[in-house]
Amino acid sequence: MLSQLLLENVWQEFLEYKINSGHLSKRDEKILKVFIENKEYLPIVNKMLSGENFPIPKKKYISKLGSEKKRVVYTFPEGENFVLKLLTYLLQEKYDYIFPENLYSFRRKRSVRDAVKKLTSYKNIRNMYSYKVDISDYFNSVPVDKITPLLLSTLKEDGEAAEFIISLLNNTLVYDREKLINEENKKGIMAGVPVSTFIANLYLADMDKYFEKKGVLYARYSDDIIVFSEDEAEILKASEEIKSYLISKGLCVNPKKEEFTKPMEPWVYLGFCYNNGKVDVSPVSVKKLKDKMRRKARALKRWQARKKLTNEKAAKAFVKAFNRKLYENTEDKELTWARWYFPIINTDESLKLIDEYCQYNIRFLATGRHTKKMYDFRYEDIKKLGYRSLVHEYYKIEEEK
After folding, report:
1. pTM
2. Cα–Cα 20 to 30 A to 226, which of 49, 55, 108, 304?
């Protein structure tokens, strides 16, 4: 498998896949094309094949919305990162067959939306008990000594690739804010590193297979797990089995994200909320988007004052920013908000709340007021700025379908 990383046709196939799947911004597409055209991967892969160590990764801290805690991720230089992405692509292509259907993370033909569709379309779902759990700091908590034999046995046909990944995980040196430190038993499978997604799927695959064999309605997306049963005793048993299994794997449950629901009660999974037949954007996801709008409005107000711009200029900048996030191809490699939610939800309740809050912020920027006077700036005035209502766009797509 490592020798495939030297082949230009393999890189071209990878590039086409990334473009067609919408996973690349125009900027990143251009960078990757140049990387491939100049064959910048050759010296990196040749070093891998000769057994040379990869560069030391950098540790980065990413702020979590609504929390003072920061998420830890690891990064390699751009060229090495491209090579790791292609290696992950090849691993997913060759070994996807080993994973059961109830695993939805980091797979070519399964996604979050597939998981939500599967669960919400189950004919008796509203009459079932559920148990949902999240693993604390999953990627960075996986014990390397436990994943090593699993990698070797799974990748028997690709021993070189297995040995390379193991050497990557066993290198305990990292740069933390430019300081070289030793992180023995602390960085696990390194969140943020492309190949860690394949390992995260592999590490808990036995649990996925166990519930599939039992015929239980169950889904896992990386560290987010949910299971259903028509019997309360069975759901309690399943919750204990999950927790016991995770402990045996050296992992911890996040107690703040552990949740039981009873029949006819709403349940939330992967940013969606199911409530008696209605599938909507989850309250947490709505709050996150509204928080982003509030922060953006405040930032634009400061920008406006600093640059001595008009109110309308600030309001227009707000509209442009959220049109891009909600509907257009973004530069942050994510699916647009609408593309993520619209195919799954069957109600406009949350969309109305978001529209209302978005319009409030536009009026605030356009008038500089938080009083009733702001409503002198009418809906027609908001539309002239280029504003697009989520509710309108949702029904427009529904009609097209």
Report:
1. 0.87
2. 108
